[in-house]
Specification:
By secondary structure, the chain is of the alpha/beta class. 27% of the residues lie in helices and 27% in strands. Strands 18, 19, 20, 21, 22, 23, 24, 25, 26, 27 and 31 form an eleven-stranded mixed β-sheet that branches. Strands 1, 2, 3, 4, 5, 14, 15, 16 and 17 form a nine-stranded mixed β-sheet that branches. It has an eight-stranded parallel β-sheet with strand order 6-7-8-9-10-11-12-13.
Length: 595
């Protein structure tokens, strides 16, 4: 039996009294067309709210009192607030700035991945942050990672079950987050299974990430306890997941805009939508600004032929049921949390009013609620950048070490980018000088190195077809949050890395010995500390333009940087364990120890 629950202010006594007209409502929506996501109907009626819960849905007006806020919804649709079941609140924006942008668009519940907050603040710091973020308008829920996105020494200690259990006790944490290294489940790795079981014992969900898993391997993954997956990229993959009992989230993100294809599971194969969700899966700020958030998913689904009420069910009651919160969230019915939208139509899905937790928080696309001031420095940094300037500035550090000091040439495995995040291996014969492999300026190659934050080790690679014209770039915006250096000139990489070191995290571009772009990311090396979404948007646009001008051939530089250092996508990757061929999990070049 699921035990996820939300602390709510209005009591059962309050609900009964308002429903009977004995006590006045705090907010009363009059004369709207109420979208009932439980029955699939649209019914004329009123909605009465007391404190943070819906108390009455029907045609009576007995709950209107002298101090009741009456909202005229005549001619408009009254729907539940949208739920994003799979958010990544660290794509330059942070949970505050993300909320600032998406709440006026109708997304009243965000279910966040906790990865980088947990890695950098630890269990205690993350717990404090979660409690502070309860002051945000809208509902902030969390999923807890059970491993990182790239294996590293000490990972299993950081994600030990006793630490995870402490996090899972928070009511805001409703389960475990996607496990990107899903082969661990097929191998029945006790570490992963124990973590999932810790969630199950508490009646909580376990999100999944099963990219590339065959139908047979999905059987093992579902048997291991995974509740859902958002990685279907074909209609057949949607069908496979549904048929094995998985909640299946249809994704449309900046990296993978797959929804028009995979929605065919419904429009052509006529599958039941009862266990279908939709997700934006961490869109970059520019994509979010242009395409919207969950509102954009609805527009895309309806344009593809999904009836509007059915599309709404996928982002409201379906999501609430998956989260184990359907008795308190996701619908317009007595007892539910009062997350309510007033929509002029069921085509654009742009709300004229947004009510979250019983409070009017946005009107006509403008946030009216106040955002709390979050002091991000109040949470202790578990992994600060402490590498010395001397180590960061040593240009030779970023050169690829030759396999033999005597050889004049070396056959080197090169990471060749085929798309934004997909890579392949391409072997090249390159010259060796002074014990290091050297690249020619006109070969379309760049050096890459991953420098550990405290300067203990560095991993090396050579990359083709990514940032061919970059002299030196350094970034903590990657899945390890170590200092990633890329470029043609080791001296420029060193200058950029040293500046990132002094910033305490960020992205820096160096050209002709000058810093030409600088994006401070003090929050876990991934996020601006600003509460304004516009800040993240501006930084995203500036970086994308600068990268494109210097040879970046794809559409999403943030995800190229993010996943270069992961160890769950096929091809070659630059990881804390070294240059890795992911599929066989073979280390081609281990990291160099610096101390």
């Amino acid at each position: 039996m699921r035990r996820n629950e939300l602390p709510l202010k209005a009591t059962r006594h309050d609900l009964v009294k308002v429903a009977q007209g004995i006590r006045p409502a705090d907010v009363f929506l009059r004369g709207g067309k109420v979208v009932n996501v439980y029955s699939g109907e649209i019914l004329a009626g009123n909605v009465a709210i007391v404190q943070d819960r819906i108390a009455y849905v029907g045609t009576k007006e007995a709950a209107i009192g002298e101090h009741t806020l009456v909202i005229d919804a005549q001619g408009q649709y009254v729907t539940p607030g949208f739920i994003e079941p799979h958010a990544h609140p660290w794509v330059l924006y942070n949970p505050v700035s993300l909320t600032e942008r998406v709440l006026p668009l109708g997304t009243t519940t965000l279910v966040h991945d906790n990865l980088f907050f947990y890695l950098h603040f630890g269990a205690d710091g993350f717990t404090r942050m979660v409690r502070d973020l309860r002051a945000l308008p809208g509902l902030q829920l969390w999923l807890a990672r059970i491993v990182a996105q790239a294996e590293y020494e000490g990972e299993r200690e950081d994600f030990a079950t006793d630490r995870l259990s402490a996090v899972l006790e928070l009511p805001d944490v409703i389960g475990t987050a996607e496990l990107t290294r899903w082969p661990m489940l097929c191998d029945a790795d006790p570490f992963a299974l124990e973590a999932i079981e810790a969630a199950k014992r508490r009646g909580k969900i376990s999100d999944g990430h099963t990219a590339g898993a065959s139908y047979d391997r999905l059987n093992a993954i579902v048997g291991a306890g995974i509740s859902a997956c958002h990685e279907a990229i074909t209609t057949q993959e949607v069908l496979d997941r549904l048929r094995l009992g998985m909640w299946t989230a249809l994704r449309n993100s900046s990296l993978r805009p797959d929804l028009p294809e995979i929605i065919r599971a419904v429009t052509e194969h006529r599958v039941s939508t009862g266990r279908l969700l939709m997700t934006t899966d961490g869109p970059n700020p520019a994509h979010l600004e242009e395409q919207g958030f969950v509102d954009g998913l609805l527009r895309t689904a309806v344009q593809a032929g999904i009836p509007p009420v059915q599309a709404l069910q996928m982002v409201t009651v379906n999501a609430a049921t998956y989260l184990g919160l359907d008795e308190v969230l996701g619908g317009i019915a007595p007892g539910r949390r009062a997350d309510v939208l007033v929509l002029p139509d069921l085509e654009a899905f742009r709300p004229s009013r947004v009510i979250a937790g019983g409070e009017v928080v946005a009107q006509d696309g403008r946030l009216t609620a106040l955002l709390p001031e979050i002091d991000w420095t109040a949470y202790p940094e578990a992994k600060p950048i402490t590498v010395s300037a001397q180590a960061a500035l040593h240009a030779k550090t970023y050169l690829y070490p030759a396999p033999s000091l005597e050889a004049k040439q070396a056959r080197v495995p090169v990471i060749r980018f085929l798309s934004t995040v997909i890579t392949s291996r391409e072997d090249r014969t390159l010259p060796v000088r002074d014990g290091c492999v050297h690249i020619s300026p006109d070969e379309g190659l760049v050096y890459a190195a991953l420098l550990e934050r405290s300067g203990q080790w560095i991993s090396h690679a050579i990359i083709a077809h990514l940032l061919d014209g970059v002299e030196g770039l350094a970034s903590t915006y990657n899945t390890t949050t170590q200092i990633l250096g890329i470029g043609k000139d080791p001296r420029a990489i060193a200058t950029a890395a040293d500046r990132v070191r002094s910033l305490g995290g960020g992205i820096v571009l160096v050209e002709h010995e000058q810093i030409v772009l600088e994006i401070p990311l003090p929050l876990a090396g991934m996020m601006t500390a600003s509460s304004s979404f516009t800040t993240a948007l501006r930084e995203n646009q500036t970086l994308q333009a600068a990268a494109s001008q210097r040879g970046y051939p794809f559409h999403d530089i943030l995800y190229s940087l993010l996943f270069l250092t992961c160890d769950f996508l096929p091809g070659l990757r630059l990881t804390p364990l070294g240059l890795m061929d992911v599929k066989p999990r073979r280390i081609l070049l281990p990291p160099t120890l610096l101390r």
